[in-house]
Amino acid sequence: MPKAQYTLPGRYFTSETIFREELERIFYERWICVGREEKIAKNGDYFLVEMGDENIIVLRDRTGTPRAFYNVCRHRGTRLCAVERGQLSHTIQCPYHAWTYTLDGRLIGAPDMHEMEGFDKADYPLNAVALETWEGFLFINLSHAPRPFAEAFAPVLGRYAAWHMPQLRVAHCLEYQVNANWKLIVENYNECYHCPLIHPALNKLSHYRSGENEFVEGAILGGSMKITHSGDGSMTVSGHKVATPVGEVAGEDANRVYYLSLFPNLLLSLHPDYVMFHTLWPLSVGRTRVVCEWLFDPTAMARPDFSPDDAVEFWDMTNREDWHACEISQLGVRSRGYIPGPFYNWQEQLLAEFDRQVLKALGHPLPNYRNCGLWFLLCS
After folding, report:
1. pLDDT tens figures, 70-110
2. What is the tens place of the pLDDT at every residue in 262-297?
3. CATH code of the domain in which 243 resides
Protein backbone atom coordinates (compact mmCIF):
# COMPACT_ATOMS: atom_id res chain seq x y z
CA MET A 1 0.00 0.00 0.00
CA PRO A 2 1.45 3.43 -0.95
CA LYS A 3 2.64 5.67 1.85
CA ALA A 4 0.17 8.43 2.72
CA GLN A 5 1.02 11.98 1.66
CA TYR A 6 -0.55 14.89 3.51
CA THR A 7 -1.94 18.31 2.66
CA LEU A 8 0.02 21.43 3.56
CA PRO A 9 -0.22 23.03 7.01
CA GLY A 10 -2.79 25.79 7.25
CA ARG A 11 -0.24 28.58 7.37
CA TYR A 12 0.58 27.98 3.69
CA PHE A 13 -2.90 29.27 2.86
CA THR A 14 -3.24 31.99 5.51
CA SER A 15 0.20 33.44 6.32
CA GLU A 16 1.00 36.88 4.92
CA THR A 17 4.69 36.07 5.37
CA ILE A 18 4.45 32.95 3.21
CA PHE A 19 2.36 34.83 0.65
CA ARG A 20 5.12 37.43 0.30
CA GLU A 21 7.66 34.62 -0.04
CA GLU A 22 5.59 33.12 -2.84
CA LEU A 23 5.53 36.40 -4.71
CA GLU A 24 9.29 36.79 -4.39
CA ARG A 25 10.37 33.20 -5.01
CA ILE A 26 7.65 31.94 -7.34
CA PHE A 27 5.82 34.72 -9.16
CA TYR A 28 8.91 36.91 -9.52
CA GLU A 29 11.24 34.01 -10.37
CA ARG A 30 9.24 31.67 -12.64
CA TRP A 31 7.78 31.98 -16.12
CA ILE A 32 4.32 33.56 -15.75
CA CYS A 33 1.68 33.35 -18.47
CA VAL A 34 0.27 36.81 -19.21
CA GLY A 35 -2.17 35.85 -21.97
CA ARG A 36 -2.21 35.50 -25.72
CA GLU A 37 -0.05 37.12 -28.39
CA GLU A 38 -3.16 38.53 -30.03
CA LYS A 39 -3.34 41.05 -27.17
CA ILE A 40 -0.44 42.78 -28.96
CA ALA A 41 -1.49 41.93 -32.49
CA LYS A 42 -0.23 45.16 -34.08
CA ASN A 43 3.03 47.05 -33.73
CA GLY A 44 2.62 49.56 -30.92
CA ASP A 45 -0.04 47.53 -29.09
CA TYR A 46 0.59 47.17 -25.37
CA PHE A 47 -1.02 45.97 -22.14
CA LEU A 48 -0.05 46.15 -18.48
CA VAL A 49 0.52 43.24 -16.11
CA GLU A 50 -0.06 43.82 -12.40
CA MET A 51 1.62 41.23 -10.17
CA GLY A 52 2.13 41.94 -6.49
CA ASP A 53 4.01 45.24 -6.26
CA GLU A 54 5.22 45.01 -9.85
CA ASN A 55 3.73 46.50 -12.99
CA ILE A 56 5.02 45.40 -16.40
CA ILE A 57 4.48 46.83 -19.89
CA VAL A 58 4.11 44.10 -22.53
CA LEU A 59 4.23 45.49 -26.07
CA ARG A 60 5.03 44.86 -29.70
CA ASP A 61 7.70 47.23 -30.94
CA ARG A 62 7.91 48.88 -34.36
CA THR A 63 9.82 45.93 -35.82
CA GLY A 64 7.11 43.50 -34.66
CA THR A 65 9.15 42.09 -31.77
CA PRO A 66 7.28 41.35 -28.52
CA ARG A 67 8.98 42.98 -25.52
CA ALA A 68 8.39 43.54 -21.83
CA PHE A 69 9.66 46.30 -19.55
CA TYR A 70 9.16 47.41 -15.99
CA ASN A 71 6.63 50.24 -15.99
CA VAL A 72 9.19 52.49 -14.29
CA CYS A 73 10.96 55.60 -15.57
CA ARG A 74 14.76 55.49 -15.20
CA HIS A 75 14.79 59.06 -13.89
CA ARG A 76 12.91 58.97 -10.58
CA GLY A 77 10.85 55.82 -10.84
CA THR A 78 7.58 57.31 -12.05
CA ARG A 79 5.08 54.86 -13.54
CA LEU A 80 5.06 55.48 -17.28
CA CYS A 81 1.76 53.98 -18.47
CA ALA A 82 -1.49 54.24 -16.52
CA VAL A 83 -4.07 52.92 -19.01
CA GLU A 84 -4.36 49.13 -18.80
CA ARG A 85 -4.25 48.51 -22.56
CA GLY A 86 -3.84 50.54 -25.72
CA GLN A 87 -1.77 51.63 -28.70
CA LEU A 88 1.53 53.49 -28.36
CA SER A 89 2.94 55.80 -31.00
CA HIS A 90 6.66 55.53 -31.59
CA THR A 91 7.62 56.36 -28.01
CA ILE A 92 6.75 56.06 -24.33
CA GLN A 93 7.01 59.34 -22.44
CA CYS A 94 7.17 59.78 -18.68
CA PRO A 95 4.28 62.00 -17.52
CA TYR A 96 6.46 63.61 -14.82
CA HIS A 97 9.62 65.00 -16.49
CA ALA A 98 9.11 63.92 -20.12
CA TRP A 99 11.92 61.39 -20.34
CA THR A 100 11.12 59.59 -23.57
CA TYR A 101 11.83 56.01 -24.68
CA THR A 102 11.52 54.12 -27.94
CA LEU A 103 9.42 50.93 -27.96
CA ASP A 104 12.60 48.86 -27.85
CA GLY A 105 13.44 50.56 -24.56
CA ARG A 106 16.13 53.12 -25.55
CA LEU A 107 16.11 56.50 -23.87
CA ILE A 108 16.02 59.18 -26.60
CA GLY A 109 14.80 62.22 -24.72
CA ALA A 110 15.81 63.66 -21.33
CA PRO A 111 15.13 67.40 -21.15
CA ASP A 112 18.13 69.48 -20.08
CA MET A 113 20.09 66.43 -18.90
CA HIS A 114 22.77 67.26 -21.49
CA GLU A 115 23.90 69.91 -19.01
CA MET A 116 24.90 67.14 -16.61
CA GLU A 117 28.57 66.21 -17.04
CA GLY A 118 28.99 62.59 -18.09
CA PHE A 119 25.28 61.97 -18.69
CA ASP A 120 24.72 59.50 -21.53
CA LYS A 121 21.21 58.47 -22.58
CA ALA A 122 22.54 55.04 -23.57
CA ASP A 123 23.13 54.31 -19.87
CA TYR A 124 19.43 54.62 -19.01
CA PRO A 125 17.25 52.30 -21.11
CA LEU A 126 14.05 50.89 -19.69
CA ASN A 127 14.67 47.85 -17.49
CA ALA A 128 13.76 44.87 -19.65
CA VAL A 129 11.86 41.78 -18.51
CA ALA A 130 12.48 38.37 -20.10
CA LEU A 131 9.68 37.43 -22.50
CA GLU A 132 9.02 34.22 -24.44
CA THR A 133 6.18 32.84 -26.54
CA TRP A 134 4.83 29.28 -26.69
CA GLU A 135 1.84 28.07 -28.70
CA GLY A 136 0.53 31.63 -29.01
CA PHE A 137 0.90 32.34 -25.28
CA LEU A 138 3.09 35.10 -23.82
CA PHE A 139 5.26 34.42 -20.76
CA ILE A 140 7.34 36.82 -18.72
CA ASN A 141 10.00 36.19 -16.08
CA LEU A 142 11.19 38.84 -13.61
CA SER A 143 14.24 36.89 -12.46
CA HIS A 144 17.68 38.44 -13.03
CA ALA A 145 18.78 35.04 -14.33
CA PRO A 146 15.69 33.18 -15.55
CA ARG A 147 15.82 29.48 -16.26
CA PRO A 148 15.79 29.04 -20.05
CA PHE A 149 12.20 28.74 -21.22
CA ALA A 150 12.93 25.76 -23.46
CA GLU A 151 14.37 23.93 -20.47
CA ALA A 152 11.54 24.81 -18.10
CA PHE A 153 8.86 23.80 -20.59
CA ALA A 154 10.68 20.92 -22.29
CA PRO A 155 8.03 18.27 -21.47
CA VAL A 156 5.31 20.02 -23.50
CA LEU A 157 7.27 21.59 -26.36
CA GLY A 158 5.68 20.21 -29.53
CA ARG A 159 3.49 17.82 -27.54
CA TYR A 160 0.19 19.51 -28.47
CA ALA A 161 1.00 20.73 -31.97
CA ALA A 162 -2.13 19.06 -33.37
CA TRP A 163 -4.30 21.75 -31.78
CA HIS A 164 -2.61 24.50 -33.86
CA MET A 165 -2.85 26.78 -30.82
CA PRO A 166 -0.87 29.69 -32.33
CA GLN A 167 -3.64 30.08 -34.92
CA LEU A 168 -6.53 30.01 -32.43
CA ARG A 169 -8.20 33.21 -31.30
CA VAL A 170 -10.06 34.33 -28.17
CA ALA A 171 -13.83 34.10 -28.59
CA HIS A 172 -14.78 34.95 -25.02
CA CYS A 173 -13.20 36.02 -21.73
CA LEU A 174 -14.53 36.02 -18.15
CA GLU A 175 -12.87 37.29 -14.99
CA TYR A 176 -13.55 36.10 -11.47
CA GLN A 177 -12.56 37.26 -7.99
CA VAL A 178 -12.17 34.15 -5.84
CA ASN A 179 -11.88 34.43 -2.06
CA ALA A 180 -9.31 31.67 -1.81
CA ASN A 181 -5.56 31.21 -1.86
CA TRP A 182 -4.18 30.63 -5.35
CA LYS A 183 -2.81 27.20 -4.41
CA LEU A 184 -6.27 25.90 -3.51
CA ILE A 185 -7.43 26.82 -7.02
CA VAL A 186 -4.53 24.96 -8.66
CA GLU A 187 -5.09 21.94 -6.42
CA ASN A 188 -8.80 21.90 -7.23
CA TYR A 189 -8.00 21.95 -10.95
CA ASN A 190 -5.63 19.01 -10.65
CA GLU A 191 -8.14 16.47 -9.34
CA CYS A 192 -11.61 15.18 -10.16
CA TYR A 193 -12.15 13.35 -6.87
CA HIS A 194 -14.66 16.12 -6.13
CA CYS A 195 -16.46 15.91 -9.47
CA PRO A 196 -19.35 13.51 -8.65
CA LEU A 197 -20.55 15.77 -5.84
CA ILE A 198 -19.52 19.25 -7.02
CA HIS A 199 -19.89 18.83 -10.81
CA PRO A 200 -22.73 16.41 -11.65
CA ALA A 201 -23.08 17.87 -15.17
CA LEU A 202 -19.35 17.55 -15.84
CA ASN A 203 -19.23 14.02 -14.42
CA LYS A 204 -22.05 13.01 -16.76
CA LEU A 205 -20.05 14.18 -19.78
CA SER A 206 -16.67 12.89 -18.55
CA HIS A 207 -16.59 10.34 -15.74
CA TYR A 208 -14.30 11.26 -12.87
CA ARG A 209 -12.49 7.90 -12.98
CA SER A 210 -11.70 8.15 -16.71
CA GLY A 211 -8.58 10.23 -16.10
CA GLU A 212 -5.06 9.19 -17.06
CA ASN A 213 -2.18 11.23 -15.63
CA GLU A 214 0.68 11.82 -18.05
CA PHE A 215 2.81 14.39 -16.22
CA VAL A 216 3.16 13.42 -12.56
CA GLU A 217 6.48 15.02 -11.58
CA GLY A 218 7.86 18.51 -11.89
CA ALA A 219 6.36 21.89 -12.66
CA ILE A 220 4.03 20.63 -15.41
CA LEU A 221 1.28 18.31 -14.23
CA GLY A 222 -1.77 16.76 -15.83
CA GLY A 223 -3.20 14.28 -18.27
CA SER A 224 -6.43 13.49 -20.07
CA MET A 225 -10.02 12.49 -19.38
CA LYS A 226 -12.38 10.72 -21.76
CA ILE A 227 -15.54 12.30 -23.13
CA THR A 228 -18.43 9.91 -22.49
CA HIS A 229 -20.20 10.40 -25.84
CA SER A 230 -17.79 9.63 -28.64
CA GLY A 231 -17.93 11.34 -31.99
CA ASP A 232 -19.90 14.54 -31.47
CA GLY A 233 -19.33 14.83 -27.70
CA SER A 234 -17.67 17.76 -25.96
CA MET A 235 -17.72 19.66 -22.68
CA THR A 236 -20.71 21.91 -23.34
CA VAL A 237 -24.19 22.44 -21.91
CA SER A 238 -25.66 20.39 -24.76
CA GLY A 239 -22.94 17.75 -24.60
CA HIS A 240 -22.19 18.27 -28.29
CA LYS A 241 -19.26 19.92 -30.03
CA VAL A 242 -19.71 23.65 -30.45
CA ALA A 243 -17.39 23.83 -33.49
CA THR A 244 -15.47 21.62 -35.86
CA PRO A 245 -12.32 20.03 -34.36
CA VAL A 246 -9.44 22.46 -34.01
CA GLY A 247 -6.25 21.97 -36.00
CA GLU A 248 -5.56 18.34 -36.76
CA VAL A 249 -7.11 16.84 -33.63
CA ALA A 250 -8.33 13.36 -34.54
CA GLY A 251 -8.46 9.74 -33.41
CA GLU A 252 -8.56 9.19 -29.64
CA ASP A 253 -7.86 12.87 -29.03
CA ALA A 254 -11.21 13.71 -30.63
CA ASN A 255 -12.85 12.13 -27.57
CA ARG A 256 -10.55 13.42 -24.85
CA VAL A 257 -9.86 16.59 -22.91
CA TYR A 258 -6.31 17.30 -21.76
CA TYR A 259 -5.96 19.20 -18.49
CA LEU A 260 -2.54 20.68 -17.72
CA SER A 261 -1.28 22.93 -14.94
CA LEU A 262 1.89 24.80 -15.84
CA PHE A 263 3.45 26.07 -12.61
CA PRO A 264 2.56 28.47 -11.27
CA ASN A 265 -0.31 30.30 -12.98
CA LEU A 266 -1.51 28.64 -16.21
CA LEU A 267 -4.30 26.04 -16.26
CA LEU A 268 -4.68 24.77 -19.83
CA SER A 269 -7.62 22.65 -21.01
CA LEU A 270 -7.45 21.26 -24.54
CA HIS A 271 -10.78 20.09 -25.93
CA PRO A 272 -11.28 18.60 -29.39
CA ASP A 273 -13.24 21.64 -30.59
CA TYR A 274 -11.77 24.48 -28.51
CA VAL A 275 -9.09 25.35 -25.97
CA MET A 276 -9.82 26.97 -22.63
CA PHE A 277 -7.25 28.43 -20.28
CA HIS A 278 -7.16 30.10 -16.87
CA THR A 279 -4.48 32.47 -15.62
CA LEU A 280 -4.23 33.01 -11.87
CA TRP A 281 -3.26 36.32 -10.27
CA PRO A 282 -2.82 36.27 -6.47
CA LEU A 283 -4.19 39.51 -5.00
CA SER A 284 -3.68 38.60 -1.35
CA VAL A 285 -3.15 35.50 0.75
CA GLY A 286 -6.87 34.72 0.56
CA ARG A 287 -7.96 36.30 -2.71
CA THR A 288 -7.17 35.46 -6.33
CA ARG A 289 -8.14 37.00 -9.65
CA VAL A 290 -8.83 34.33 -12.26
CA VAL A 291 -9.06 35.10 -15.98
CA CYS A 292 -10.72 32.40 -18.11
CA GLU A 293 -10.57 32.53 -21.92
CA TRP A 294 -11.93 30.34 -24.72
CA LEU A 295 -9.99 29.84 -27.97
CA PHE A 296 -11.46 28.71 -31.28
CA ASP A 297 -10.33 28.29 -34.85
CA PRO A 298 -10.86 31.68 -36.59
CA THR A 299 -12.42 29.89 -39.56
CA ALA A 300 -15.11 28.47 -37.29
CA MET A 301 -15.54 31.87 -35.64
CA ALA A 302 -16.16 33.47 -39.04
CA ARG A 303 -19.24 31.32 -39.70
CA PRO A 304 -22.50 33.27 -39.37
CA ASP A 305 -23.96 30.62 -37.05
CA PHE A 306 -20.93 30.45 -34.72
CA SER A 307 -21.46 30.95 -31.01
CA PRO A 308 -19.18 29.91 -28.14
CA ASP A 309 -22.04 30.10 -25.64
CA ASP A 310 -22.56 26.35 -25.29
CA ALA A 311 -18.96 25.94 -24.08
CA VAL A 312 -18.79 29.23 -22.16
CA GLU A 313 -21.97 28.60 -20.19
CA PHE A 314 -20.88 25.08 -19.29
CA TRP A 315 -17.50 26.14 -17.94
CA ASP A 316 -18.83 29.31 -16.29
CA MET A 317 -21.19 27.08 -14.32
CA THR A 318 -18.36 24.64 -13.55
CA ASN A 319 -15.95 27.44 -12.64
CA ARG A 320 -18.42 28.88 -10.15
CA GLU A 321 -18.91 25.47 -8.59
CA ASP A 322 -15.13 25.20 -8.23
CA TRP A 323 -14.74 28.70 -6.80
CA HIS A 324 -17.32 27.94 -4.12
CA ALA A 325 -15.47 24.74 -3.21
CA CYS A 326 -12.19 26.66 -2.99
CA GLU A 327 -13.75 29.40 -0.88
CA ILE A 328 -15.19 27.02 1.71
CA SER A 329 -11.81 25.27 1.78
CA GLN A 330 -10.15 28.62 2.48
CA LEU A 331 -12.53 29.15 5.39
CA GLY A 332 -11.74 25.70 6.75
CA VAL A 333 -7.94 25.88 6.62
CA ARG A 334 -8.07 29.08 8.67
CA SER A 335 -9.45 27.14 11.62
CA ARG A 336 -7.34 25.91 14.52
CA GLY A 337 -9.27 22.67 14.04
CA TYR A 338 -7.73 22.11 10.61
CA ILE A 339 -5.26 19.21 10.68
CA PRO A 340 -3.60 18.25 7.36
CA GLY A 341 -5.28 15.17 5.95
CA PRO A 342 -4.11 12.41 3.60
CA PHE A 343 -4.32 12.72 -0.15
CA TYR A 344 -6.11 9.95 -2.03
CA ASN A 345 -3.09 8.59 -3.86
CA TRP A 346 -4.56 7.94 -7.30
CA GLN A 347 -7.05 10.79 -7.60
CA GLU A 348 -4.91 13.36 -5.78
CA GLN A 349 -1.33 12.39 -6.64
CA LEU A 350 -0.84 15.58 -8.67
CA LEU A 351 -1.75 17.70 -5.66
CA ALA A 352 1.00 16.14 -3.57
CA GLU A 353 3.49 16.85 -6.36
CA PHE A 354 2.24 20.43 -6.74
CA ASP A 355 2.78 20.97 -3.02
CA ARG A 356 6.31 19.60 -3.37
CA GLN A 357 6.98 22.08 -6.16
CA VAL A 358 5.73 24.95 -3.98
CA LEU A 359 7.93 23.90 -1.05
CA LYS A 360 10.92 23.41 -3.34
CA ALA A 361 10.48 26.88 -4.85
CA LEU A 362 10.23 28.42 -1.38
CA GLY A 363 13.22 26.49 -0.10
CA HIS A 364 11.10 24.94 2.63
CA PRO A 365 11.69 21.33 3.73
CA LEU A 366 9.12 18.71 2.80
CA PRO A 367 7.18 17.82 5.96
CA ASN A 368 7.55 14.19 6.97
CA TYR A 369 5.51 13.43 10.06
CA ARG A 370 4.41 10.03 11.28
CA ASN A 371 0.95 10.94 12.45
CA CYS A 372 -1.60 13.70 12.45
CA GLY A 373 -0.86 14.55 16.06
CA LEU A 374 2.55 15.83 15.05
CA TRP A 375 0.97 17.64 12.14
CA PHE A 376 -1.36 19.36 14.61
CA LEU A 377 1.56 20.52 16.73
CA LEU A 378 3.16 21.95 13.59
CA CYS A 379 0.02 23.79 12.52
CA SER A 380 -1.17 25.11 15.83
Report:
1. 999 999 999 999 999 999 999 999 999 999 999 999 999 99
2. 999 999 999 999 999 999 999 999 999 999 999 999
3. 3.90.380.10
Is the same domain home to 182 and 331? Answer: yes
Is the whole model's pTM more than 0.90, yes or no? yes
Tell me, yes or no, whether 208 and 239 share the same domain. Answer: yes
CATH number of 138's domain: 2.102.10.10
Fill in the amino acid letter for 171. A
The pLDDT of residue 321: 98
For the packed helices 182-189 and 349-362, what is the interaxial angle rounded to 10 degrees? 150
| Confidence grade of residue 211 (pLDDT, cut at 50, 70, 90) | confident
- Peptide bond connecting 196 to the previous residue in cis, omega within 30 degrees of 0: no
Count Cβ atoms below 10 Å from residue 6 Cβ, excluding itself.
17
| Mode of pairing for the β-strands spanning 100-102 and 91-93 | antiparallel
Which of the pair, 29 or 371, is modelled with greater confidence? Answer: 29
